Amino acid sequence: MTESKRKPVGRPAGAASKSGGGHSQSLVRGLTILEGLAATPAGLGLSDIAQIVGLAPSTTHRLLQALYKQGFITQDTDLGLWKIGVKTFQIGNTFLEARDYVATARPFLRQLTQESGETANMGIRDEGMAVFLAQSESPQMMRMITRLGSRAPLHASGIGKALLAWLPEREIERILQTRGLNRVTENTLDTPARLHKSLAEIRRQGYACDRQEHAIGLNCVAASIHDEHGAPLAAISVSGPVARIPESRLVELGGLVGRAAREITLRIGGRIPQLEEAVQA
């Protein structure tokens, strides 16, 4: 094969050596960082990432900041670790493939729909919001449907509150200071006192209830899935019209969702935390 046939299609000869070459090189390095983080869900420190891309830490940090600003990666400031971000889910399947809990949870979501007759969802926490990743739709004509990739406030959604309840107190306070407690409906828990009381109840009973706090006419029950450290990794829920999920049915559905969440946690090698762990600083 001749040298001319090996040239990339649509790219002028010598382009890499011109000004565009620097941009291409930065792009390749950025993608290399994403690949490294996608292969290490627990996260990587700056020095490890610098070694992967073969750059000085200062240069690597600038690349990380660019990816962070675009939402492709996140940072655990306490541990100094960088991790893959949820935006990769919104533009493809990379984020989902980096974890196996979504695939593990799908049969449980379908089972919850069969048992309850209502829509079952799965979501995670990202930048102080709940993001929906998977769904099993109710067969009912009138049913709850959430667009995958959409977001909801943590304090005003069943999945969000299930995730919040098992975070350290300092992390809860950081999220509240950043996001506030905007009132979505007249039932939204819009004061710290009301929210903390609800979170304590969630920890005691093992599931969260959204009583028309995100949408009038819609009730929801949710429970969290935990990672190997006992931290909330994701949450699953059952949602439906108040006419079919009245107050009297919340305990029944809470038991169903709570058991499913515990089973998923065990299937993925997670650990169910003790009550006192939720308030560690």
Written overview of the protein:
- The chain has 281 residues and is α+β, with helices and mostly antiparallel strands.
- The protein folds into two domains: 83 residues, Winged helix-like DNA-binding domain superfamily/Winged helix DNA-binding domain (Arc Repressor Mutant, subunit A), CATH 1.10.10.10; 181 residues, GAF domain (Beta-Lactamase), CATH 3.30.450.
- Helix content is 41%, strand content 18%.
- It is built from ten helices and eight strands.
- α6 packs antiparallel against α10.
- The termini are far apart.
Total strands: the figure is 8
Main sheet makeup: 6 strands, antiparallel
Overall residue-averaged pLDDT value: 84
**Overall domain count:** 2
For the biggest β-sheet, the strand order reads 5-4-3-8-7-6
Q: Helicity range of the residues?
A: 40-55%
Compute the CA-based radius of gyration.
Answer: 22 Å
N-to-C series of helices and strands:
HHHEEHHHEEEHHHEEEH
Tally of individual helices: 10
- Globular, elongated, flat, extended or rod-shaped: what is the shape? elongated
CATH class of the largest domain: Alpha Beta
CATH architecture assignment name of the largest domain: 2-Layer Sandwich
Beta-strand content bin: 15-25%
